[in-house]
Each structure stands twice: as structure tokens, then as C-alpha cells.
Fold these 2 entries.
Entry 1:
Amino acid sequence: MTKQQANWSPYDNNGGTCVAIAGADYCVIAADTRMSTGYSILSRDYSKIIQLADKSLMASSGFQADVRALQKVLAARHLIYQHQHNKQMSCPAMAQLLSNTLYYKRFFPYYAFNVLGGLDSEGKGCVFTYDAVGSYERVGYSSQGSGATLITPFLDNQLKSPSPLLLPAKDAVTPLSESEAIDLVKTCFASASERDIYTGDKLEIVILNASGIRREYLELRKD
Amino acid sequence: MFRNQYDTDVTTWSPAGRLFQVEYAMEAVKQGSAAIGLRSKTHVVLACVNKASSELSSHQKKIFKVDDHIGVAIAGLTADGRVLSRYMRNECINYSYTYESPLPVGRLVVQLADKAQVCTQRSWKRPYGVGLLIGGLDESGAHLYYNCPSGNYFEYQAFAIGSRSQAAKTYLERKFETFVDSSRENLIKDALFALRETLQGEKLTSSNCTIAVLGIGEAFSTLDQETVQRLINEFEVVGEDPPAEASAAPDQSDGAEPGPAAAAAAAAADDDDQETPAADQGAAPMDI
Amino acid sequence: MNNLIGSDADSQRTLYPYVTGTSVVGIKYKDGILLAADMGGSYGSTLRYKTVERMKSVGKHSIIGASGEISDFQEIMRYLDELILYDNMWDDGNSFGPKEVHNYLTRVMYNRRNKFNPLWNSLVLGGVKNGQKYLGTVNMIGVHYEDNHVATGFGNHLSRPILRDEWHENLTFEEGVKLLEKCMRVLLYRDRSAVNKLQIAKITEEGVTISQPYSLKTFWNFAAFQNPTVGAEGSW
């Protein structure tokens, strides 16, 4: 019998785009809900955003099985943290944990591209952006996933954040108000779904501020 | 030289068919400050007495959250209790990692009992010196279990362990039939009253007790001090001296169920010299 | 024998499937879940087996349907039967529902892919427990999701567009079967591995029923079927 399958790969790319924007007292984190494989859509309503702690949210794209495994590891680690410390993990602490968890699998990586958003211990919005093996940086805004190449330059242009090379360092948070940031995110995804076939169906936006957590949805292109 | 020929090793039987080391471990449970548990159809309440070992120290934590749906109150060696609590927390985390659903309480209790049992059958181990009241909720309802160092476990409607727990047990035995349909508040109230019985004259305040609740739609949590104090005031539990009926605790002639076990516990409760658990009298205390 | 590609131990791995089943289609309907799968077992492009049961019950509350390597599916059934046996042995009023089984399967599939030794299947898991309908899927590398309708293999290409058009929450049993038969008929026409002998499985709060094998009415007299190259100049 001749071999009919292409060489087996442990990875797949299930697509999807994530965006997070940090403001002075809020954080907006968003992702589309499409899950694809190749040219097929597997699900039009698969949430890529999870709440890891009271004040940290993670949006992830890439290989769904790895993403889910990563989410479960972090959830379990956070439970252990709560048992040991009797409190919720802070967003910067979760950021370090995420980095360590990714690097732990440096030589068989989680194929996951994450943005972590939340509020730091002063209540300021924070965004951490990662590569698949755990390098990370605190930034004012970030985009990851299949639509990142379309969205990142647009955000760079709109948010005109201070150069990270400036000394002394400037605050990374964006100057936008919460509602401006939400509108910007909507524009980003409406645009990305025009060109990126892996982005679409629905946009899920999670807004975190002092008064708690809130969700908004926006329908996107379904083709 | 030795008080007993058969008590130097956990795995050595006495001719009477007893394992003294295991029974001594059960004694450790009776020495610890009291812990009680009671349940209705929908809720479980755990409560314990906090005793500081010295004027200068704080008390040790005796109630632990295992998961949202399971909590535990301990009496005996707190250090052993913490180890077992950590084991249970791990089991819960691993189970929900695999199945994304909560570990059924009864199954955790059996795993824990099996773990305790191993220590009664290995020459290089010692039994855990702690009794655990495990309260939990699963699809078959609310449960309360008692796990002891021998590896035995029992399910209860209400139970008390630790020093002077007989008084609380008497209170609970008198009222347990009402618990099934009890409200959350009434369950806490009965917990406080039962707890007061173990104090024998000492005043019940929010600083010498801990109360924890879990139930349908309510994750396990220990009540904060202000809430406990408010409840104590509200129910007027304080009472310097216990009511007459309650102080007659060890009288169990009317008790329907208290068997030799309760008698053994009662005997031990106020007994200073417990090292010789009267080798030949009554059933082995392991039965409880 | 060792070489650069791998040792003897590596030859234990499934590098490609031998006997395979094609699509499984599943939908939620008013009272529960319906699954459909044909009974062909292909050896490459040879139709090697014609009575392969690709849907099985898992305990009281779940059913599983499998496409891909049949031997791996039978291995999975051994895991699941053991899981359910041990669950029943507790005899304590708790039992695994479809959600638990689906999560367990996902862990099994993902762990095997982590060991570069996959179970070569796409699985559909359906069930009802405590009035809650559940329908999910997982594949050989651990990708999994829940939906109102799912399909594996060609089913994802050919059936799901139909389901997206015609599926709704309140399908009756008869409507559900009709819809699945429509999907299976399209697959039969266009998926060369599909055979005209299928089963439909139903799960409700009352339990599992898997139908006897039966076949669909087909119509092959379309002009395009009889002379596919007519009107396509230069084609052979």
C-alpha cells in the first residue's frame, strides 16, 4: 500500500488574532472566535480569551490543543498559588509564570501566541506580549496571531506610543479613553477580517477596569 | 521496662488482635482541640476550636479549603493534617485537569483512607496522627465524612472529634434529625452551639473558633471573624455556663446510637492517663 | 536495528493508518444527540471491510463515533470501557457524563501526540446528562471543540455547510434523521471511501440506541454522472 498521508505533524495552525490595549485605568483584550484548519473552518464560536485570575486575562492563538493545555496548566498553577498564598495572582506575576511555563517546553514548544492583559497592583492597565518559547515584554498594546501582521502597524500608527528606547522610560500605557480603545479594537478586527482568512466570524472583547469585568461582542465577516 | 510488649511497632499484633501504635495515633486525635461538622441536604458546615499553644503565640489553622466543593477540618497533629490536605488538593486539581469536573467527595475520602491504611501496614512508616472531617458536595448531594488514622472512614450527618468532643456529639445526637432540612443559617447556629459545648464554660468568641461553609451554589469558604462574631451575638450563643441539660453530656442512656465507640471516646475525654487503653475492655477503639 | 531515522522501538508508532473509516456526522436535536456513520473499512483505496461498527455507547450518558484507524478506535474503546467499568465500580451515585469522557479522550489523544505516537482518529462524542446536551469532537493531535453540529473528515467539507443552513435547535427526531441522511447521501456521492451501508445512533436522557445497518436511496442517472465530460471540451 502506498502512503497516502503527508508526513504526520504534531502541530497544526488553528489561526486567530488577539489584541490587547492597556490604558491608565483599564485594559481591553480582544480576539476573534474563529477556529480553522487549513482552508476549513472548524468552529465559528470558539473563545480564545480566558480569565486566569481576578485581574489577568489571556488571549491565545496558534495550535488549539497546545493553547488549551497551556490554559489548563496555568489554571492549575493558579489554584496552587491561591492555596499557598490565600490571594489572587497579580497580572505581572502571572506574566512571569506564563513565560516560565512556555520556556519549560523550549525544545518541544507550545505553538501558542499569547497576549496577557490586566491591571497591575496599582490598578494601571498592563499588557504583556510573548513568543512561543517565553520571551516577553510589558508593552502598552500588542497584537498576536494570524492577523497580527495587519493589525500591528495600524496600532503603531494610531497609538504613537513613546519609543521604548527613550531614557528615562516613558509610561507604556496608551493615552486613549476606554471607549476609544474599544472602538479602535473593533476597527482593527473589521479590517483584519477583510484580508486574513483565519480571522472572522465574531469578535469577543473583554474590558477590565476598577469596577470589574465586562464583555462585548461584534459580528465579523463569515467568509 | 515496657508498658506494653506489643506497641513498639505498628505492624505487630497484640494477642487480643489490636495494633497499639494505630490506637495511639487515634489518641492523638482526641488530644487535639475539637472540630465538628454537620450537614443538611444542601450545605455542610465545618467548625473548630482555636487554641493557642501559649499566651505569646497565635493558634494553628485547622480548617482547610481543598477545592471549591470540598473542605476539611482537622483534629490531632496539625502538621499531618496539612500534609493530607495538600494531598487532597492535588488530587482535586489532577482530577479536574483530566475531566474538567469536580472530584466526587466519596472517592477522595476512599483514596485518603487507603493512604492512611498503608501506614498501618509498613514497618518503616507511622500512622498519621490526625482525624479529618471532610465536608463536600457532589452530584449525589452534600456529604460529611470522618477519616481516622486507622484507615477507617465513616459518613455522618453530624460529627465531632478532638478534645471534649463528646459534649458536642451529645448535642448533635439530640438534634441531628432536624439537620437534613435545615437552612444554612440554622446549620451554622447548630455548629456554634455544638462548638460551645466543647468549651465547657469558656466563652465562645470569634477569636477562639473558625467556621466554614459550603453548599449548592456556594463555594467552600471560611467565614471572616466579624461575620462569626455577628452570628454569635445574633444567636446569643455566648452563655458563660452551659445549660444544665448539656452539662450532663456523658449521660447517654437515652442515646439511640452511641455504642461502645462513644463510650470509649467519653472514657478518654477526661482521662489523664490514657497511655494504657485498658487492654481488654470493650471493643477496639479502632472501630471509630 | 538502528538507523538515523529511528530505532526498532519507533516502528511501534502509527506513521500512517491501515484500515480506516471515513466521516462521522453528529447533531444536537430536540431530545438529545444524533450521530451517523457508514460501515466501510478502507484499506487504502480498497474497500476491505463492510460491516465496521464505528459508533459505540460509552456508559449510560455518552456515545462515541470514530473515523480514522479502526484498530486505534478499538484500542480507545478498551480505554473507555475500563474507564466506565471503574466508574461503575465505585457505585456511589456519581458517574461520568459526556463532558468528562470528552475531556478524558482529549487528554489521551493529546498525550499520545506529545509522545509522537498518535491514535490516528477523529472522534465525535455526544451525550445527554441531567438535561444537558453535549456534542464535541477531538482529533489525533488533540484539537477539540464543542458545537451544535460536528463532522469529521470529508464531513467537515461537505456536511457542515448543509448543517449550517438547515440545523436548528428544535429539530425533531424525524427531522434530525432526515437531515443526517441528506448529509450522508452527499458524502456517499462525493466521498469515494463512503459506502451505502450506515447506522444512525441516538442518545437521549432515556439512553442509547444504535440503529440496524441500512442503506440510502440513491439516484445516479443525472446527466453529469452518466457522461461527466459532456460539455467539457478537450476533457477525457
Note: Chain A has a mean pLDDT of 95.
Entry 2:
Amino acid sequence: MSADTSAREESTGGASPRAGPGATSTARPGREPRRQRSTLTSYGFLGPNLVLLGIFLFLPLGWAFLISFQESSGFGASGWVGLGNYRRLITDPTFWQSALNTAVFTLITVPLSLALGLGLAVLMNSVLPGRRLFRTLIYLPMVISGVATALMGVLLFDEATGILNKLLRGGGLAGVPWQSEGTAAFASIILVTLWIRVGFNMVIYLAGLQGISPELYEAAKLEGASSWQQFRHLTIPLVGPSTFFLLIMDVIYSFQVFDTIFVMTGGGPGRSTSVLVTYAYENGFVTRDQSYAAAIGIVIFLLTLIFTAIQWRGNRSRDTAG
Amino acid sequence: MASPLPLQGNPPAAPAAPTAGAVPRVRRVPAAQRVSAAARLGTAVAVGLVMMFPLYWMVTIAFSPNADVFSRELKIWPSEWTLDNFRTVFGSFPTATWFGNSVVITAIVTVLTVTVNLLSGYAFAKLDFRGKGVIFLLVLSTMMVPVQVLMVAQFRLVTELGIYGTFWAVILPSAASAFGIFLARQFIIAIPDELLEAAKVDGAGNIRIFLQIILPLCKPLIAVLVLLTVMYQWNDFAWPLIALKDSQLFTLPIGLLYLRGQYGADYGAIMALALVSITPIVIMFLAFQKYFVQGLARSGIR
């Protein structure tokens, strides 16, 4: 995704072999006559990618729309039912439960990811022995597969043999019903998601923090501002662009979380951790109601599109402002 | 590594003075500051322990005898170190085959994706053509679409193409990824036009310019694209789960789920296989952390 706001572009420097401010790609006078040939050459370069994307992305996307207007009948769909599948969605309590779970999950994980990410970024940006090691530890979960992560979650949160409940019982407390009770299962998924996600939030905030001039903090100190006041009135506003970017990325991530939930709880117990993506999978490949799954997929697609569009608008307005 | 995205023009690393760790200076630091430094370190250690613990526990369980897992008492260290779980995993399951499958699929997807994304990145960055803006927007708009939107239609597509259940059913849809295009375009756009103009004056065509000028300058970009694609593909789960059916053709994540289905709560074996499956990526990450972090920050994917 367009990770780069203009602010971050400066702060990260990036991998770009940028030679100077003059190095832009704007067309210069005298190019016009070559345009025809250039278009042909360009499509030569784009060709392989466009063929792959066309066949395996755009075609299925269009096809998914069509399938969502058909009825599922055994293998392969047949018969148009118009908006039938979408009407069914409206009256399907499991769909609404999944949508609600998705929303609650997103509303809890996103602010927590942001807050933890910013807090850790400030910490890891300060004078700290072993800073590099700590950063590595926080990044590490990002690169580990969702299935392995979820299985670690299963191991830790196992009601009978998991270490968390053993610790609680060792301390004379009752074990938490991580698997048999909906709220506890939901909490376990949130904790695992935060473990995965906090590193990404920290990376982006660190880049944002490093773009802030230290003189601003010097000035604030001279004025007698406390650390909290500096954080509240300097840091938070100045990392605003990073916050906005992360907000959108975290929202998209959270409502698309599949591996963690699918492996850890499978949507259970009951429907208490079922979300839109797991419910779509269940319909498509467990109960084999593929047209209905396609309709849920289209709903997910439209939601994704809305947030992607917000992200672009945000980027563009900041770019022109900067 | 002062900055997670350290390249030219290292920005002044905020309050961190270069010699902050030196002993003579510490003595001059007031007590309040020393307390806050200790608090920071304490917090960092606590966070580090929390982040490490699940990994530590996975390793511990993988090397523990089964009795430890099911014992009611708390053991924070294996009662004895054993390779039994690894013997089970490699002996009773086609783990070596799964590992090989993951390697083959990841390698092919990476070569395909990186190649086509570099080509497109060059076109979007340096060539001028009809429909550029629209196509770029269209391509980018697909980046965030999750597999659950497409899975039913993709499943039917690979079935129609006659590749369902084969490696190609995993490889081709996975290679159709747009995230690298954005990164490639951004990197290549910053290569000075003067270099390309000079080559054109010498009579070089676009293909020669791409191969002889662009590619050699793109080494950091290629490194980032390769690492991210390898990570993404190695870890990919939802689509291979749908596209593969024969357990001999499974990739490691699918094999992990399969093992769990067979062994239920035998966490020793499951953690042994989980450890086997994450080790290559963890090593890659530790070796090339700089590129990983930079790529993740700039592409926005995880």
C-alpha cells in the first residue's frame, strides 16, 4: 500500500537512489513524437504483470460478483437469483454476529495497536541500552507465519494444559475458560493479534518520530514543559500522518484477520469469534454454499474498498499540503 | 542500526546523544534522570520478555517429553531435552516433502513476482503511455483485496484450467500480486532521468536501459522485494489451503494444520513442526532485518 506520506518519504530517505530534487519523471518538451512507440514498449513491460493480474485477480473478481447473484447448486452454480443471496445475508443471524464480531474486534485491536505501537516507538527512540535487541524482539512476530503464531496461541491458552492457566492456578486463582467461553476466547485472539501487530505499528511510528526535529523538544524544555506535556502537545500531533496511515492499515488488517482466528478458535465456541472472513470461508469450503460465500466476499470487498479510498484521499491531501 | 530505515542522510536520532552510554557522562546525570532511565530499561525488558515468551515456550515444548505438556505442575524448563518430537514429525509425516514443497513454491512465486513487478515498476516510473494513470490506480486498488473475496471464483478458475490441486494452482494466483509494483515504481522513479537520457543518446533501447542501467541500481529494491515475497509466500495459508488437496503436495503451514488435525493436543509434535516451519524465515529476518523493516514500512503489508 502507499506507505509513503510525503513526511515519511523525507524521514526515511528510503532505498531510493535519489540524486537531488530535480530527479522527477515529469515529461519534458520534445517527448510527444515518441509517444506512440513508447506506449507499445510500455505495454511490453507491463504485459506479463497485466496478464497475471487479469487472469488471476480481475477475472475472479468479476466472476465473484456474478456468482453472488446465482444460487449454489452442488458443484458449480446455476440459475440467477438476483439479490437473493444478499437478501439472505440481511436475515442471517450468523452473518450479523460475524459482522458485529468483526467490528468489535477491529474497534478493540486498532486503538490498542496504535497506543502500544506509539508507546514502544517513543521508548525505543530514547536512550536505551540494548535498544537494537529490543527492537528485534518486537519486530520478530511480524515475520512468523499466521498458522505457527496461532498454534503458539493455542498452546499458551489451552484451558487444561496451557501455561497461562497453570500459572493462574499456581497462584491460587481459577483458570480462564479460554476455549469454552466466548468472551475469553475473544480476548485470547485479541492478545495474539496485538503480539503480531505491535511491531508494525512501532516501525511506522519510529519513522515518524525520526522526522521530528529535536529542536522542538529543546524549545519545549526551555519553556518548562514536562515529559508528558511534550508527548501530549508535540509528539502526538507531529506523528499525526503516521497515525492516520496506521489507522487505515490496522482497520484493514483487523477486519481481514483469518489465520489467527481460523486456527485458534475456528470461529467458536459457538459463533462467539466468527468474523466475516472465516464465515465466508466456512460457507465456501465447508458447507459448500459457494454463491452465498461469494456474496459475503463482495461485502468484504466493498468494505476494503472504502478504507483503501480513505487512505488514498488522506495521502493525496497531505501530499498537496506538504 | 540507529533508525529502522537507515539510509542516506540519517536523520538526527532524536534525543539520543551519540555518547550517551559513556561512563563519565552518566555521573553528571541528575538522579531523576537516572530513575527515568532505569524505568525505561525496566519497561523495555518487560516488553522484551512478553514478546519473547511465546517463542521461548514453543522451543521448550518442542524439545520436552510429552509428559511435561500434560503434567499438572508448572515446568518452565524441559525435565529433559529430547528430540522425540522431531523424530515423530519427520518419521510419521512427510515433513521433509512439505519443506521441499514450500521451498519450490516460494522460489517460483518469488522469481515470477519480482520479475514482473520490476518490469511494471519501470514502465510506471519511466515510460509515458496511454492509460497509465488508470491502470496504476486499478492495479493498486487490488492490493488490499483479501483472498476471501476471490476464493470461490479462483477455486473455480483453477478447476476450469485443470490445475486444481497442483503447485501451479498455488503459484499462479500468488504471483499475481501488485504490492511489489508500488515499491518498484517508487524506487525507480528516483533514478535520475539524465542517466537514461545519456544511454538513449548512445542508442540504447528500453530493454537495454532496463537491463544495464536500471537493474544494477535496483539491488536494494530487489533485496526488499525478494525478502518480502519469500516471507509472504512461505507463510501463506488461506489460498494454499483451498488450492491443494493431496497431503504429499502440502506446504508447511497446511502441513501444520494437518498435523494438528491428526494429533490434537500433542503439542510437542505440533511445536516441533512449527519450529521447523518458522526457522528459515527467522534466520532470514535476523540476517536482513534492515531490508525487512524498510520494506514492511514502505509497502504497508505484513
Note: Chain A touches chain B through 130 residues (CB under 8 Å).
